[in-house]
Amino acid sequence: MNFQDLSGTFSAFDVAAALGLAFALSVMIAFVYRATHRNISYSQSYVQTLVVLGMLIALIMLVVGSNIARAFALVGALSVVRFRNAIKETRDVGFIFLVMGVGMACGTRFYTLAIAAAVAICLVVVIMHRFNWFHLNVQRQVVKVQVPSDGDYTPVIADVLIRHTSEFELVSTESIRGGALTEHFYTARLKKGVTQSELIAALQARNAGQRVAVLTGYDQTDL
User: Fold this and answer.
1) Domain extent at residue 119
2) Measured by CB atoms within 10 angstroms of the end CB, which terminus of the chain is less buried, N or C?
3) CA-to-CA distance for 203 and 159, rounded, in angstroms?
4) Would strands 181-190 and 165-176 be described as parallel, antiparallel, or unpaired?
């Protein structure tokens, strides 16, 4: 049997340059992600994975090179991998694709392209974060009201919401505690001058003393 050493297709400098640049640019992207992250679902493991992923893609591109057979073999090998963790934000997917693109550019030795693209895209992310582009200043609340299941409390709740909110919408209704209670979920926007405490007190006066909760900023919080 003949064993062929394929390491001659790229030099040690190519490997060091590709992996080193992929690491540096991925770290820059990771710091930009951390600096511009707004929600509470920050994961250190995810950010570290961004750095590893950038270097890994560079390594894969070095291995594949321009060999079509190796590319198809790699696709077949990676097709057995299944990822179970759900991405909580679409923004996180964008950063994954960013480090993958940078890693591919480094692995194919387009170093100038990798640097220019990483810096330009990170600059765009920072600018959007700094000037809060595309922000929609609509403050809405989630109102959760529990009522006994032996009566129709929907008109009563609606009457309270009409008096305390400028708009509201019933999102879902579900049975809890073995059918003893019904929980209604609403999205609502409080009227100017109305506090959450006032809304909770008004609802508790009409729902037989059951639990009422008002969640603020649900569009920026993982529920």
Assistant:
1) 8-130
2) N
3) 10
4) antiparallel
Q: What integer pLDDT is reported at residue 66 of this predicted model?
A: 62
What spatial distance separates the first Cα and last Cα of the chain, rounded to whole Å?
A: 59
- Bridge partners for 212 per DSSP: 145
pLDDT band at residue 2 using 50, 70 and 90 as cut-offs? very low
CA dist., res. 158 & res. 129, Å (int): 38
**Cα–Cα separations (whole angstroms), residue 142 to 33, 81, 160, 185, 213:** 28, 38, 15, 7, 8
The alpha-carbon radius of gyration of the chain (Å, integer) is 27
Q: What is the pLDDT of residue 154?
A: 86
Q: Assign residue 192 the CATH number of its domain.
A: 3.30.70.380
Q: Do the beta carbons of residue 22 and residue 109 sit within 8 Å?
A: no
With 0-12 / 13-18 / 19 or more C-beta atoms within 10 angstroms meaning exposed / middle / buried, residue 6 is exposed
CA distances from 196 to 141, 193, 203 (A): 9, 10, 11
| 102 and 159 within one domain | no
Q: What is the per-residue pLDDT across 30-80, written as a single tens digit (0 to 9) for each?
A: 999 999 998 777 889 999 999 999 999 999 888 887 666 666 666 655 555
pTM of the entire predicted model = 0.66
What residues form DSSP beta bridges with 189? 167
DSSP 8-state secondary structure symbol assigned to residue 41: -
Phi-psi region of 217 (alpha: psi -120 to 50; beta: other; left: phi over 0): left
The domain tally of the chain equals: 2
Is it the case that residue 84 has pLDDT exceeding 90?
no
Q: Based on the domain organization, do 28 and 82 belong to the same domain?
A: yes
